[in-house]
Amino acid sequence: MKTTLLKISILFVVLIITTLTIVFTKDDLPVIRAHITDETSTLSRGEIKSIEQMLDDFERESSTQIVVLMISSLEGQSLEEYSYRVAEKNKIGKKGKNNGVFLLIAKEDHKIRIEVGYGLEGVLTDALSSQIIRNIIVPRFREGKYFDGIKNGIEAIVAVTKGEYSNEDSGDNRSFFSLAFVIFFIIFFLIFSRILSLGKRSTISPHGYHSNYPWWGGFGGGGFSGGGGSFGGGGASGSW
Amino acid sequence: MKKKTIIILAILGGIVLLVLLLVGWMTGIYNSLVKSDEGVNQAWAQVQNQYQRRFDLIPNLVEVVKGYTAHEKEVFEKVAEARASVGKLQVTPEILNNPQLFQKFQEAQSQLSSWLSRLLAVAENYPQLKANENFLQLQSQLEGTENRIAIERMKFNQVVQEYNIKVRTFPTSIIAGMFGFSQKQYFQPEQGTEKVPKVSF
């Protein structure tokens, strides 16, 4: 009698968990393509660009990925859960280092959270994250200065996490890759134009080359792709 | 005579081959069970770490709150009581195979959770305390730890689910039964953490 009850309850729990996993995997969580995403159109293009540049530079230098997402509303979801799921889904931070930071702002809910990857929990502690929210971001948000709040908040995060990790691989590879690509392209272009000029007309407009993919960002700046980082619920939440 | 020995040898060889295959197959399953089992232990250790972290935070937090709210005695006593009963718990991985112990563990921890949230609710009534930087820091640490606990519990349940499926599905279940791999306990959704216990003043 007791064992059947136990079995039924176990079955029940398993069922709940399976449905939960299904709910969790079948999500409509945002896919992040830039270091800063503003779904509320609060920030101007120039403001977004300057923050994107700052975060991209910092990633190049330190490999640490800081990502900002501003949404209008959580639509009743819990801030902590949503933030964790978005950060995990987009794999913010580098694999093995887990050095991702996710700054989530729910504008209409007046809620904010800094989600800290496993690898940065030691420097960007809960207490420190909470201080950054309370003393730097919230006062500015209260005055409606969203750009200042985000920018200064990020500056604080950068200051804290600076030196914790360095970019020993991807940066060099990237510049090597781009250099090789440029050389290859020039050679290819020369040969190609030579072949064409063998024909009658030799009107090749040298387009130069520019990336058409905004998320790739050419070789200049911007764009984000997750590096495989993992989170464990560290960080802090706040409201204004 | 010669034919007979050949047949016997062939049968023997066949049996040996079969046994070898069987042993190989069993070893594979056994190893995968061990791996899953270790995975569960590791996830449990993570949960445990976070609970321990919270456990260690409490004295400091209580100390700070006490400085401002001297006459909220009951909450302090209850928190101390709940913390003590958590401290007495046995937390070896063995607990995962014992439904009663596991239940006790959960109850004690959730009891502590509710008294802690009560403690923070009390703090809400004291503006001076709420402005104290030290208190704010401890509060954010406690909140962060609660959040980590929730996430580690979720991860733990996922790992246990994988393990339990292995232990219960055929044919792995045979090997599991032979070597004493039993089903492990899940964390039930936390009840009553939001419900703050009533205190009479």
What is the helix tally of chain A? 6
How many beta-strand segments of chain B?
Answer: 0
The beta-strand count of chain A equals: 5
Q: Quick check: average pLDDT of chain B?
A: 88
N-to-C span of chain B: 99 Å
Strand content of chain A: 5-15%
Overall geometry of chain A comes to: globular
Radius of gyration of chain B: 26 Å
- Average pLDDT reading of chain A: 81
Series of secondary-structure elements of chain B, N-terminal to C-terminal: HHHHHH
Estimate the helix proportion of chain B, in percent.
over 70%
Describe this structure in words.
The complex is a heterodimer of chains A (240) and B (201). By secondary structure, chain A is α/β, with parallel strands linked by helices. Chain A is built from six helices and five strands; from the N terminus they run H-E-H-E-H-E-E-H-H-H-E. In chain A, helix 4 (126-142) packs antiparallel against helix 5 (146-161). The longest helix of chain A has 29 residues, at 170-198. Chain A is globular. The N and C termini of chain A lie far apart (54 Å). Chain B is mainly α. The radius of gyration of chain B is 26 Å and the shape is rod-shaped. Mean pLDDT of chain B is 88; it is low at 192-201. Classes of the chains: A alpha/beta (240), B mainly alpha (201).
List the helices and strands and how they pair.
The complex is a heterodimer of chains A (240) and B (201).
Chain A: H1 2-25, E1 36-38, H2 45-62, E2 65-71, H3 79-89, E3 100-106, E4 111-117, H4 126-142, H5 146-161, H6 170-198, E5 231-239
Parallel strand pairs in A: 1-2, 2-3
Antiparallel strand pairs in A: 3-4, 4-5
Helix pairs in contact in A: 2-5, 4-5
Chain B: H1 2-68, H2 73-87, H3 99-123, H4 127-130, H5 133-168, H6 172-178
In short:
Chain A is α/β, with parallel strands linked by helices.
Search tags:
heterodimer, A: about 240 residues, alpha/beta, 5-stranded mixed beta sheet, 6 helices, about 15% strand, B: about 200 residues, mainly alpha, disordered C terminus
